[in-house]
């Protein structure tokens, strides 16, 4: 296969990340499936040759944005990406990675979290594994309740000033945490965060209630992860039937996908009737448009104005090609978007229900906080 087999009008488009000047492909290749270890040993994990083939094909689609983390593998994903980078023009690629979680068994009590010590040690090691002298986007992998946010943000700002990092982003935070980060950065005059990487899909829309409102009000671009909800939105999982293939099947059969405390991720162990209602609506639209269900689910995200780039994972060239088919050359109609919005809507509970009711006739596009009432 070569880039010539992909029509120009189907290749990716490029968006700015939030209000920053950084431009990335509207689809980002997530690298969590690169490298197979005892910690990440699902059948879908890829060896280095396969990973590099997937990365090469992604570039043929026009993709320039890759997302990894030190915890992926652990370490192996960054190493695989780094060896691929050696034969590429570095300036043509946007590389994102993350820190926070421990990457192995260690007696070092400081090898976790977002302290100055751990962040500086983490970026040094990531740069070595990635075979580069800078990371385009460095992200906190989650909120750290053990470190004052001022310490973390000053450290990130120092990394930008030292040219080890170009931009700073966040992952997996609540609304109040994100607002505190924004306020603290502004108060201290630090380089602002430009992105929020958050789980977001047709069956995971809770972040619309607060985090994404903070993003819209402050020019922070959203980078959705798990856009297909671990495979549910591919149509391979059926109502009332245990998954038989892919990552979901591996989790269901082995229970190996565990949180830091040993608990299984609840979103990977069962789905609600509403989830399958959403899936069936997406399947019907996919049939009508001659598209895959995955393409419809990804396209729905791409048409949300808060989204800068959607992070996909690929375990084969065929899967990558299918997902990339959502990037360009077609769109969901407003009626189709409205239908998917309605069937997947998050039930408004207090205080959101009361706030909405109180402002039923108070929408004012010129008001400073109009964004809170606007549609994600």
Automatic annotation (TrEMBL):
One of its GO terms (molecular function) is oxidoreductase activity. Signal peptide: none annotated. It holds the Pfam family Aldo_ket_red. Residues 26-344 form the NADP-dependent oxidoreductase domain. Coiled coil: none annotated. It comes from the Eukaryota. One of its GO terms (cellular component) is cytosol. Keywords: Oxidoreductase. InterPro entries: AKR_Detox_Biosynth, NAD(P)_OxRdtase_dom_sf, NADP_OxRdtase_dom. The keyword Transcription does not apply. Belongs to the aldo/keto reductase family. Aldo/keto reductase 2 subfamily. This is NADP-dependent oxidoreductase domain-containing protein. It comes from Elysia chlorotica.
């Amino acid at each position: 296969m070569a880039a010539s087999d992909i029509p120009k009008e189907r290749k990716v488009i490029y968006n700015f990340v939030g209000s920053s000047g950084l431009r990335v492909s509207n689809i980002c290749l997530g690298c969590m499936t690169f490298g197979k270890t005892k910690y990440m040993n699902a059948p879908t994990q890829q060896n280095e040759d396969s990973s590099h083939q997937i990365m090469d094909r992604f570039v043929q689609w026009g993709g320039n944005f890759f997302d990894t983390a030190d915890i992926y593998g652990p370490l192996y994903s960054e190493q695989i990406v780094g060896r691929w980078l050696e034969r590429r023009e570095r300036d043509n690629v946007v590389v994102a990675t993350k820190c926070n979680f421990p990457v192995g068994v260690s007696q070092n009590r400081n090898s976790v979290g977002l302290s100055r010590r751990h962040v500086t040690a983490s970026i040094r090691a990531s740069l070595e594994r990635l075979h580069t002298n800078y990371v385009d986007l460095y992200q906190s992998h989650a909120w750290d309740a053990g470190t004052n946010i001022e310490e973390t943000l000053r450290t990130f700002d120092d990394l930008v000033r030292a040219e080890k990092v170009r931009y700073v982003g966040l992952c997996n935070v609540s609304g109040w945490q994100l607002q505190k980060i924004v306020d603290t950065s502004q108060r201290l005059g630090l380089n602002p965060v430009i992105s929020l990487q958050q789980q977001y899909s047709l069956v995971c829309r809770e972040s619309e209630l607060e985090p994404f409102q903070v993003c819209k009000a402050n020019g922070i671009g959203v980078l959705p992860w798990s856009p297909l909800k671990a495979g549910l939105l591919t149509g391979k999982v059926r109502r009332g039937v245990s998954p038989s293939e892919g990552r979901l099947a591996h989790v269901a059969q082995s229970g190996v996908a565990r949180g830091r405390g040993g608990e299984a991720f609840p979103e990977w162990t069962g789905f609600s009737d509403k989830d399958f209602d959403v899936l069936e609506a997406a399947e019907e639209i996919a049939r009508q448009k001659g598209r895959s269900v995955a393409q419809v689910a990804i396209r729905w995200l791409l048409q949300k104005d808060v989204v800068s780039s959607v992070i996909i994972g690929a375990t084969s060239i065929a899967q990558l090609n299918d997902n990339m088919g959502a990037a360009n050359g077609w769109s969901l109609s407003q009626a189709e978007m409205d239908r998917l919005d309605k069937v997947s809507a998050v039930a408004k509970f207090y205080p959101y229900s009361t706030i909405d009711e109180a402002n039923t006739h108070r929408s004012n596009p010129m008001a400073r906080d109009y964004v809170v009432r606007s549609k994600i």
